[in-house]
């Protein structure tokens, strides 16, 4: 057991940190301005330019297998990268993540959808949630009925991240009603890859954040049979498995953001004076800084353990739920304290804290709410699927 980053990992961390500081952080004011004016956070041309720079630096497709042109650096490296990138709210990733559900596709699907997604030429979204089925994913109503070599999809999806921008969607629909009922929603459901030009429509949903997802409507949308992703009737398990293995990433995002925010609070506390001395000299402020630092460190270890476990070929879903639950709650507590330490300024739009405050609230909801993570964790322990202290 070795609790330090390797030389290679440190080098990647340092390079990404520099990239974030040099290329992304200077765009923060532009992002804030655009979002306040209701425009996309960054113009497509800027994102393309960033993508090119990341490619030149060798960091496009960090976790993409080498056979698809990626760097294949593994989950630990993805965690390290994610925590660095999350130190800014400028929306940029390093592309082609291996947790993409399209890796479950056949060779033809990989060629048509996965590779263009990795290259940044096509944008995708994943649609499970419906107006009547969020946490309770077994209760979906969308149907797909076979007609010759095609399936006809009807129904609605909601809260789909990237649904307004996507060129295609990986959408979950009931394909065998009887089997669906008999297995209480576990089987009889299939995942389809549906191109936008097959006829589905999307509509932006306004949220308290800047990351408006979309509602999708399928009205007799015809999808060819070869666009079934994974097994016929096996889409529910496919979708949930994929979500489960990648959940810790929300925790990683919370850790990186919280580290940057805490540094802002420390800098401000040293500079802001009240009653004749800096607020950093008040125990009330010091304790908020200390509690935040301890919680960030704890969340980081959960995230790294979830990533390490997956790299080690083990099932990381229990740890992933812990990293997601603790990390996202930690992130909310830290951003709240950081805002408090900044006083009235923290509440203004002069500083990005209020933006992070709104973003952090989402971490506790998507990819499975707090309550669902607690349910998963306790169920694993009560059923004896996982033993206390099993992982270290
Ligand atoms: C910005 C955003 C982006 C999203 N992106 C996507 C996406 O890309 N694709 C996608 O498919 N979905 C996406 N979602 C949907 C998201 O995963 C769901 O909103 C989430 O799973 C919760 O479902 P719900 O909103 O229907 O709440 P509900 O399931 O109705 O839950 C309401 C409340 O009840 C609690 N609750 C529910 N069941 C239980 C229980 N058994 N025990 C205790 N408490 C319970 C919940 O925790 C919550 O507090 C996104 C949501 C948002 C807000």
TrEMBL record:
GO terms for biological process: fatty acid beta-oxidation using acyl-CoA dehydrogenase. Residues 235-382 form the Acyl-CoA dehydrogenase/oxidase C-terminal domain. SUPFAM superfamilies: Acyl-CoA dehydrogenase C-terminal domain-like, Acyl-CoA dehydrogenase NM domain-like. Keywords: FAD, Flavoprotein, Oxidoreductase. The keyword Plastid does not apply. Pfam families: Acyl-CoA_dh_1, Acyl-CoA_dh_M, Acyl-CoA_dh_N. Residues 6-121 form the Acyl-CoA dehydrogenase/oxidase N-terminal domain. GO terms for molecular function: acyl-CoA dehydrogenase activity; flavin adenine dinucleotide binding. Its cofactor is FAD. It comes from the Bacteria. One of its GO terms (cellular component) is cytoplasm. InterPro entries: Acyl-CoA_dehydrogenase, Acyl-CoA_DH_CS, Acyl-CoA_Oxase/DH_mid-dom, Acyl-CoA_Oxase/DH_mid-dom_sf, AcylCo_DH-like_C, AcylCo_DH/oxidase_C, AcylCoA_DH/ox_N, AcylCoA_DH/ox_N_sf. Residues 125-209 form the Acyl-CoA oxidase/dehydrogenase middle domain. Belongs to the acyl-CoA dehydrogenase family. This is Medium-chain specific acyl-CoA dehydrogenase, mitochondrial.
């Amino acid at each position: 057991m070795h609790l330090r980053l390797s030389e290679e990992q440190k080098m990647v961390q340092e390079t990404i940190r520099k990239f974030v500081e040099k290329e992304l952080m200077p765009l923060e004011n532009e992002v804030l301005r655009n979002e306040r004016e209701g425009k996309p956070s960054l113009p497509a041309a800027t994102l393309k330019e960033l993508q090119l720079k990341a490619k030149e630096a060798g960091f496009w497709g960090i976790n993409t297998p080498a056979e698809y042109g990626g760097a294949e650096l593994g989950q630990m490296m993805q965690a390290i990268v994610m925590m660095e990138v999350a130190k800014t709210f400028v929306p940029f990733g390093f592309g082609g993540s291996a947790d993409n559900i399209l890796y479950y596709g056949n060779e033809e699907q990989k060629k048509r959808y996965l590779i263009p997604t990795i290259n940044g030429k096509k944008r995708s979204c994943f649609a499970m949630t419906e107006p009547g089925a969020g946490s309770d994913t077994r209760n979906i109503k969308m149907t797909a009925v076979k007609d010759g070599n095609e399936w006809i999809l009807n129904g609605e999806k909601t809260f789909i991240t990237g649904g307004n921008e996507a060129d295609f969607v990986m959408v979950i629909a009931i394909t065998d009603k009887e089997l669906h009922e008999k297995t209480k929603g576990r089987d009889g459901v299939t995942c389809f890859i549906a191109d936008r030009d097959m006829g589905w429509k999307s509509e932006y949903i306004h949220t308290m954040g800047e990351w408006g997802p979309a509602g999708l409507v399928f009205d007799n949308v015809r999808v060819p049979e070869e666009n079934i992703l994974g097994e016929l009737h096996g889409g529910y398990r496919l979708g949930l498995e994929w979500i489960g293995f990648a959940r810790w990433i929300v925790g990683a995002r919370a850790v990186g953001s919280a580290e940057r925010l805490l540094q802002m609070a420390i800098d401000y506390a040293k500079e802001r004076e009240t009653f004749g001395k800096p607020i950093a000299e008040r125990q009330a402020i010091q304790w908020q800084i200390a509690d935040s630092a301890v919680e960030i460190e704890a969340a980081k270890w959960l995230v790294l353990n979830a990533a390490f476990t997956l790299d080690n070929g083990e099932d990381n879903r229990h740890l992933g739920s812990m990293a997601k639950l603790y990390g996202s709650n930690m992130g909310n507590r830290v951003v709240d304290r950081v805002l408090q330490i900044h006083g009235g300024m923290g509440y203004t739009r002069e500083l990005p804290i209020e933006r992070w405050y709104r973003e952090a609230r989402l971490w506790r909801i998507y990819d499975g709410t707090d309550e669902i993570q607690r349910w998963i964790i306790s169920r694993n322990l009560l059923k004896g699927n996982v033993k206390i202290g099993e992982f270290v």
